[in-house]
Amino acid sequence: MLIRILKTYLRPYRRNIVLVLSLLLIQSIANLYLPNLNAELINNGVSKGDIGYIWHIGAIMLAASALIMGASIWIAYLSSRVSMSFGRDLRTSVFVAVERFSARELNKFGAPSLITRNTNDVQQVQMVLFMGLTMMLAAPITGVGAVIMALKTNVKLSGLLLVVVPIMGTMVFLLLRRIVPLFRVMQIKIDRINLVLREQISGIRVIRAFVKTRFEEDRFAQTNQDLMTTTLSVTRTFAIMFPSLMLVLNLSSVAVIWFGAKLVDSGNMPIGNLTAFLAYIMQILGSVMMAIMMSLMIPRAEASAERIQEVLSTESSVVDSLNPQVPTQRTGLVEFKDVEFRYPGAEQPVLTGITFTAKPGETTAIVGSTGSGKSTLLNLIPRFIDVTGGSVSIDGIDIKDQSLESVWSNIGLVPQRAFLFGGSITDNIQYGKKDASEEEIWSALEIAQASDFVEALPEKLMANVAQGGTNFSGGQRQRLSIARAVVRKPRIFLLDDSFSALDYTTDAKLRAALEAQASDATVIVVAQRVSTIIGADQIIVLDYGKIVGVGDHHSLMKDCQTYKEIVLSQLSPEEAA
Description:
The chain is α/β, with parallel strands linked by helices. It is built from 22 helices and twelve strands.
C-alpha cells in the first residue's frame, strides 16, 4: 500500500527524484574513491616521504570532500522539497476525499480518526519518503560499491562479511517481527487519545457542571498510559537492538584490525590498504545500519499508508450525477414520493412511506416525538444521505439526477447544532454569500433578530467569532446561523429546530420577518416547540418514521391524536384552540 501511494503522488516530482539519484551516485563514487586515495597517500607518499605527491593527493581528496559536501546539501534540499510537496498533495487528497463523504462515511470513520489520518499518518509516510531519498537510496549504492572495493583491496579479509552481515540480518528480522504489530496498534491508540481529548475539550462545560473533572482526568490518564505502554515496548526494543548492532559493528572493526595486522606483518598487505579496507567495512556496515533504520520506519509508514488508502478508496454513498439535469424553472418545489431510509445493516428503516409536497410560498412544518426521524428526513433534501427507497425531487427532477452543486446552491440550511467558523461576524455571514455587501449583511441580521446584539459589540460586524461560536450564547449562535442562510436568498429554507434557544418574543418576531423575506420560497421547519409551527400552512406529523398526519393545526387537532398529544403537552386547551 505504501508503494502504491508513493507511485501515485510522486509522479509530478520524477525529475527531482532522478536528480537526487544522480547526486547520490556521484556522492557514493566520491565516498568510495576517498579510502583508495588515502591508501595511495600512505603507501606511496607518506612511506616514501614524497611531499609533492602528498600535496597532489591531498588536493584531490579535498576536492572530493567538497564534492561530497555539496552533493549532500543539494540532496537534502531536493529530498525535503519532494517529501514536503508529497505530504501537501497527500493531505489535500485526503481532505478532498473526506469533503465528498456523506454522513454515513463520516460516522463510519469518526472525526478523531480522520484528523489523525490526515496529520500523523501522512507525516509518517512523508518522513519515510524523506529518509528514503536521503538514506535508503544511498545505502545499496554505497553498500554494493564498498563490497566491490573491499574485494578488490583484499579477498581474504572480505570473508568477514560472510559472518557479520547474516548476524545483523537475523537481528533485524527478529526486531521487525516484534515491532510491526506494535506500530499498527500505536496508530489505533493515537486515534483513541484524539477521541478522548476532543470529547473533553468540546464537553468541558458538561464535565464541570456534573463535577466529573477527576473522572475525565483519570479517563485521559488511562488512555495516555495505554499509548505510553505500547510506545515503551517499541522504544525498549530499539534500546536493546541499537547497542547490539553497534556492538557487532565495533567487533567487526576489531576483527578487521586483528586479521589485517597479521597480513601487514607478513608483508601480504600494505598498511594503506588496511586503512582503506577498514573504511570500506565501515561503509558496508553503515549501509546495513541505514537499511535497518529504514526497515524500522517502513512498517509504521506502511500501517499509516493502509489507513490513508482506506480513506482514499472509500466511495461516498452520495454520488454526483454524471449527466446532471437542470430544472426548466427554479421555484423550490420539494416532493417526497414513498421515501424510505434505513442505515446499513439495520433491521428496521428509520423512515418509511414518506409522501408529501412542500410548495413555494408555504411553510411546511415537521413535528414528532424524539427519534421519530425528523432530522433524518430533512437531511435527505440536500443529499447529506441518500434515500434507500422512493425518491426526493426538487422542481420536478429527482435530486439524484441533479448535480450536488445545483441542489446545494438553492438551499439555505440552518442545522440543529448552530455552528460558526472562526473569524469575524462578516466572515460567517458571507459564508452564505461570499460577495454579500455590508447592507445585505445588516439586512440579514435584522431579519434574524441579531442586529441589536451585533450593534452593541465594539467592533460590530468585525467582532471576533471563536471556533464553533463559543464566545456567543446559544440563541445568538442560532440567530447568526439564520442570518447566514437568509443572506443567501435561497429558494428553499431548511430550518432544523433552529428556534429552540430563542425566547418566545424573539421567536415570534423572527418568524414574522422570515415569512415576509421568504414569501416566495419553500420553508421547511423541524421543531419541537409547538408555538413555532402552529401557524404553518402544512404540518407533517411523524411517529416512528411514518407519517401519521398531514394538514394545518386545526385539522390535525381534530383528526390526529399524536399531534393533539404533542400540542396539549405544551399548551393549554385554550391556547391550542
